[in-house]
Each structure stands twice: as structure tokens, then as C-alpha cells.
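Design request, C-alpha cells follow.
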């Protein structure tokens, strides 16, 4: 048993009072008045002194009342036996292995700090160790025995970002879980953070973390590089523009405030680290950053990297750029129109898909009566239907759409609604609209992906495109159909119908001269075709990513046997059906099994170039329970934490309430017993003889 306010136990000394009063009580012998003596002068009665205790039960009750009150005010409680059986202390070592720890001398210092803690821990202390960057990876669970001597031998910093908030939250949760399941003294647990405290670390959620008063404390061991300062190279705008796909990229050179140099060279370099090509001088003062256009790339089709020289910390001085490779796409057109009819839908389609520096097309024209068409090539991107299809062909086109690809269907005649129903898997009907007057697109939904590219003031107008003929389509029978655009009379003009994982896009009027002037507005017509084509892309691919950022794979990667070539040349197999992969090192990643091969450029997270250490005010703002540096302060904090912990245990049991209740019951009993004892002598007087005092003169 322990007491929260033990000084109240001094009140228990008050039990000496009743004992002394019972010992020194002065009592007179009983008097008896006689009528014959009433006229005599009285003399004081003879008083007897007693040195023995009387009424022992009454004395005992009075002593118990005082003891119960003293113990109640001392607020007793019992220590948690689970905590007593746990370790004296637990320590979680968080070792930063992010990209910024690659600077000169940092990793060696960090390893020395971690090893010193592992070797110098006290007995009955459990230690766990974890590496952290953008993820926290445990290396050692809580143990009381010595750690393996080669535990940190093969560890080295990686290339990922620093998620300081996640690491501290994970360590706190590990300690709380261990304390709740195996017993602990939480106020003595410590999270040892070994890091360079760089400003680029992620700290957003630290302020929201809950650190109980009796919870673990954080001890920070900051390591500093042998040479302060750093300059970093970051991508501002990828290579290529709308007018020039091979235009050099825009980059930013960031120079740390602690840097001792401001003159650098920026140029192109082969991955093997050869000399710079097309180098240009760059001057950036310490503490500043400049955005510039990179020099011309020597060879557009080879693999080059931008390099910055003149910085003593080279870990973030490379910028990888994926080579520009045109995408190979296959377009399938199902039509019965002749090839040379300049007024047909087919004519405008074949002229819309022209090769460019980023896309190369193969256009296949199929008869709608063909018995079977294979649409299973990874390069198959879009199917366009302008004529009624046979049942087998409609089934093949529907399967193509259900697999995630887009199918574009044009209602050239009202009777084409039967083919639309076969593609959508539902019954629908259409009729020819009134052709006595022209109309135009109205009520356009620019939030829909089909029209989102036109959501600009200079692109939103479609009312200048006249439509002479269109079909009135009843879309109520098409499941989840959406009218993306309507004609001025309210009839659907552009309809989107989800089919499986794909998209069915319906034009209720053609773009050929017999129906409209849409084909004569190539900016609108071709953009609509290309937007419909991109609906089949479940994930839009980029060419530039950061280490640790998941890279989505194209739909064709779902097939088995796809491989990935890493920057070091190693080829690994991707799991069938994989949706993405996460790069762990910067460089160029390639999917060599695609035609053409697909390249991804992976670079260092930009925040890792912000290597200046955080100032004390910034550390204080993190809302961390920092462990005091000097021993006296630590002892005070430890005692304070123990008091808070004891108070929590005492509040949970509340033994003092029972002691106060016992004191009240004892007082009631003592009052009753005292009254009973006061009446007892009078009753015994009439029955027993005894010694009496008689008043004399």
C-alpha cells in the first residue's frame, strides 16, 4: 500500500489523546444524600486517582475513529501489480534513414548514437529499434537481452522523404501497446529520435498527436554533417510544351543558407556519370533559389540526366528525365461507308488520327458484318461504330468496352438504336427529330470528363456549330446514362453510358455535312475524339515521379509475365494484375515488354533538399514531450510524472471514501457505547453494595 498524501498519517498520533484521557481521568466516588445531613456544612469530596484504563471498548473505538480519519486523508492506494512486473523502462530508437542522411558523415554519427544506446542501456530495460523515412520499419522488437552485434552493419540511408510525424506516432503507439499488454511504467518510457532535424521533414500531424502526462517522453539526438550547406536540383516543368514536345525542362536550383558557395554548373550527363555536356554556369546566393530553363538536350532519344556540379553534398544534384517515346495506339472503325467519300463519317475520322511526336496511330476499318474481330491487343485504344453491327461484332465491341476501353457510337439513322442497345446491354429507341430548323448544343456539363477540357472561357462556346439533323434518343432505358450535352430543343446530343469498366459515348448526330458542321470545327471535333479515347485510361500515366510515390501501371500490365527494369539494370517480374509499383531509388524505370517500352523517371523528393536544421522555436512548436537535457530537471520531471501516475491510480480505487465511511460508522457506535456505559453504574447501584462518599461536616 502507498499513500498519495502520507503526511496526513501524522494525524494518527492523535490516538494518544484518548489513551491519556482514559489514564488521567479524575473521578469521584458516588455520593448519597441523607436528609439528616442537609443542614450541615458540606466538605469537598475525596477524589481518587486511577492509573489503570477503564472502558477499553470505548477507548478502542475512539482510537479507530482517529486512525480511520488519518488514513482516509492520507489517500491510500495499491500499486498496479502489472506495472511492477514490467520492465523499469522501455526505449524505442528511431533512426532516420531518409535521403538527407546521405550527407557527409551523418550516417556514421547516427549509427554511433544508436549503437551507444543499445550497448549502454541499464538492466531491466527493453529496447526496440526502427528505421524511418517515408515509412517506419522495425528492425528490433522490445528485448531485454543484448541486441545482435551486426544489427546495423548492413543498414544505410535510402532515397525517400522524411515523415517525422508518422515515425513518432508509430513509436508512441508501440510503447502504449506494450504498456497495456505486458506492464510498464509509462512515464519512464523514452523515444530516442536520431535525425538531422532537417526542415524538409514532414511534421503536419505532430500538433494533433495526443501525448498523455504519464506517457513516454522524446529525446532528440541531432546529428550534423561535417560540411554544412547544400544545393539541390528540382523539376519545375517537365520537358516539352504544346508547341514543342522536345523543349528543355524548367528546373529550380535551391541553395541552402548555410552553404559556402554560390557558383555551380548545370548540364547534361549520362547515367554512368561522365563529364557534363552543354554545361551552363548558374549563380545562386546562399539561402536563395532560382528557376531557369535547362540547356538543350544533346540527344532527344537517349537517356540523359541533368546534373549540378559544385555542391559538396551531391545526393540531390541529379534530375532524371524519361526519354520521350511516342505512344503506339490502334483505332478500330466499324463502318460500311466507302473509303473515298469526303462527305462520310469515315473520311473525317481517318484524317483526325494523325501521327504526332507523342502519339502514333494505326487505324483499322472493319465491315460491320464481319463475323469476329479481335480487340485484345494492348495497343487497342478506341472502337468507333458508325453503322449497324452484326450480333457477333456487337458482342465483341461490348466485351471490349466492358474490359475498360471506350466505344464511340454514332446514331447516323434512327434505326441504329438497335446496335446501341446491343452495346449497352439494354433496350432503347430513337426517332428522327424535326429537321425543319437547325439547332445547336446547349446545356453542356463541363464537370463531366468528356467536356472538362473545354472548361475555359475561350473554349466553352459550342453554339456556333450548327446541326441540321439529329435523332431523338430515349435514354431512360439505358442504365446510368448521362446526357453530357443537349440540343436547344432539349434532346440528348452527347450521351455517356458506363458499361462494365469501360465507357460508351453516343453522338445522336453525326459530324459529317449531312448532319452538322462539327467536323468543320477541328479544334472541337478532334478534341472530343481524343477526350473520348482517354476515357479508357483507368489511370492517367505521368512520366515523372518521386521516390516512394506509387506509379500506376497501364491496363495492359494486367496480363501475366510483365517485367520491370530498375535503374540498376535488374529486371523483376510484376505480379499479374498489379495496379502499381513503388520505386525505392531514383532513376529510370522501364516496362520493356510493352511496344514501345514505357519509361518512368523517378527523382528525389524535393523536400529532402531543405537540409537546414530546425531551430529551437520550431522544435518547441511540434508539441512534443521533450525529455530535459540536464539530470536534475529530469529527476524533477520523473517525480512529477510519478505523482501524476499515483494520483491516477488513487482516483481509480478511491479507498479514502470507504475509510471516511468507516470513521462515521465508528463515531455512531462510539456514541451509542458511551451512552450505554454512562447509564450502567446507576442500574448496578440498587443491586450491589459498594463504597460511597458521605457528606460530612
Amino acid at each position: 500500500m502507498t499513500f498519495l498524501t502520507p503526511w496526513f498519517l501524522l494525524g494518527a498520533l492523535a490516538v494518544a489523546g484518548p489513551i491519556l484521557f482514559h489514564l488521567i481521568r479524575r473521578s469521584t466516588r458516588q455520593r448519597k444524600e441523607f436528609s439528616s445531613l442537609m443542614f450541615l456544612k458540606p466538605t469537598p469530596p475525596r477524589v481518587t486517582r486511577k492509573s489503570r484504563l477503564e472502558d477499553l471498548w470505548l477507548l478502542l473505538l475512539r482510537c479507530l475513529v482517529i486512525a480511520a480519519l488519518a488514513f482516509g486523508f492520507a489517500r491510500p492506494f495499491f500499486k498496479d501489480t502489472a506495472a511492477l512486473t514490467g520492465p523499469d523502462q522501455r526505449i524505442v530508437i528511431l533512426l532516420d534513414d531518409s535521403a538527407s542522411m546521405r550527407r557527409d558523415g551523418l550516417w556514421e554519427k547516427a549509427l554511433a548514437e544508436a549503437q551507444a544506446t543499445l550497448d549502454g542501456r541499464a538492466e531491466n530495460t527493453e529496447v526496440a529499434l526502427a528505421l524511418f523515412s517515408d515509412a517506419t520499419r522495425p528492425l528490433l522488437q522490445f528485448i531485454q537481452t543484448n541486441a545482435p552485434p551486426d544489427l546495423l552493419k548492413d543498414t544505410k540511408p535510402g532515397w525517400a522523404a522524411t515523415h517525422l510525424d508518422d515515425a513518432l506516432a508509430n513509436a508512441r503507439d508501440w510503447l502504449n501497446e506494450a504498456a497495456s499488454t505486458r506492464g510498464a511504467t509509462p512515464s519512464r518510457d523514452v523515444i530516442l529520435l536520431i535525425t538531422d532535424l532537417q526542415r524538409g521533414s514532414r511534421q503536419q500531424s505532430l500538433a494533433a498527436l495526443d501525448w498523455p502526462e504519464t506517457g513516454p517522453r522524446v529525446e532528440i539526438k541531432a546529428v550534423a554533417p561535417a560540411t554544412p550547406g547544400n544545393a539541390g536540383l528540382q523539376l519545375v516543368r517537365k520537358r516539352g510544351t504544346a508547341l514543342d514536345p522536345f523543349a528543355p525542362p524548367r528546373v529550380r536550383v535551391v541553395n541552402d543558407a548555410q552553404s559556402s558557395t554560390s557558383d555551380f554548373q548545370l548540364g547534361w550527363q549520362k547515367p554512368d556519370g561522365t563529364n557534363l555536356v552543354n554545361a551552363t554556369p548558374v549563380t545562386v546566393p546562399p539561402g536563395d533559389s532560382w528557376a531557369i530553363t535547362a540547356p538543350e538536350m544533346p540527344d532527344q532519344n537517349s537517356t540523359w540526366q541533368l546534373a549540378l556540379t559544385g555542391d559538396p553534398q551531391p545526393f540531390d544534384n541529379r534530375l532524371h528525365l524519361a526519354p520521350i517515346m511516342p505512344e503506339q495506339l490502334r483505332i478500330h472503325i466499324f463502318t460500311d461507308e466507302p473509303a473515298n467519300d469526303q462527305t462520310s463519317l469515315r473520311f473525317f475520322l481517318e484524317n483526325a488520327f494523325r501521327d504526332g511526336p507523342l502519339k502514333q496511330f494505326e487505324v483499322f476499318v472493319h465491315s460491320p458484318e464481319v463475323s469476329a474481330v479481335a480487340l485484345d491487343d494492348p495497343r487497342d485504344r478506341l472502337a468507333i461504330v458508325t453503322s449497324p453491327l452484326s450480333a457477333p461484332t456487337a458482342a465483341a465491341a461490348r466485351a471490349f468496352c466492358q474490359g475498360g476501353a471506350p466505344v464511340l457510337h454514332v446514331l447516323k439513322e434512327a434505326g441504329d438504336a438497335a446496335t446501341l442497345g446491343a452495346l449497352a446491354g439494354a433496350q432503347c429507341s430513337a426517332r428522327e427529330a424535326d429537321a425543319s430548323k437547325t439547332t445547336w448544343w446547349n446545356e453542356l456539363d463541363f464537370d463531366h470528363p468528356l467536356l472538362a477540357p473545354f472548361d475555359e472561357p475561350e473554349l466553352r462556346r459550342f453554339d456556333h456549330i450548327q446541326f441540321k439533323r439529329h435523332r431523338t434518343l430515349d435514354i431512360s432505358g439505358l442504365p446510368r446514362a448521362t446526357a453530357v450535352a443537349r440540343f436547344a430543343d432539349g434532346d440528348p446530343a452527347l450521351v455517356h453510358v458506363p458499361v462494365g469498366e469501360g465507357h460508351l459515348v453516343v453522338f445522336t448526330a453525326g459530324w459529317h455535312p449531312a448532319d452538322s458542321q462539327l467536323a468543320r470545327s477541328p479544334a472541337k471535333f478532334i478534341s472530343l475524339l481524343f477526350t473520348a479515347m482517354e476515357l479508357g485510361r483507368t489511370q492517367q500515366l505521368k512520366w515523372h515521379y518521386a521516390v516512394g510515390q506509387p506509379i500506376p501501371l497501364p491496363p495492359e500490365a494486367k496480363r501475366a509475365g510483365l517485367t520491370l527494369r530498375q535503374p540498376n539494370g535488374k529486371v523483376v517480374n510484376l505480379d499479374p494484375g498489379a495496379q502499381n509499383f513503388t520505386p525505392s531509388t531514383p532513376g529510370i524505370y522501364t516496362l520493356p515488354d510493352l511496344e514501345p517500352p514505357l519509361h518512368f523517371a523517378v527523382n528525389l523528393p524535393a523536400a529532402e533538399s531543405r537540409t537546414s536544421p530546425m531551430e529551437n522555436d520550431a522544435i518547441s512548436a511540434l508539441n512534443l514531450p521533450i525529455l530535459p537535457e540536464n539530470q536534475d530537471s529530469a529527476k524533477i520531471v520523473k517525480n512529477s510524472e510519478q505523482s501524476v501516475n499515483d494520483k491516477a491510480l488513487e482516483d481509480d480505487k478511491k479507498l479514502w471514501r470507504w475509510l471516511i465511511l468507516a470513521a462515521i460508522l465508528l463515531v455512531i457506535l462510539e456514541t451509542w457505547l458511551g451512552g450505554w456505559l454512562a447509564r450502567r453504574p446507576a442500574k448496578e447501584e440498587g443491586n450491589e453494595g459498594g463504597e460511597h462518599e458521605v457528606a460530612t461536616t
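Comment from the thread starter after seeing the answer: thanks! The two ends are 64 Å apart (CA to CA).
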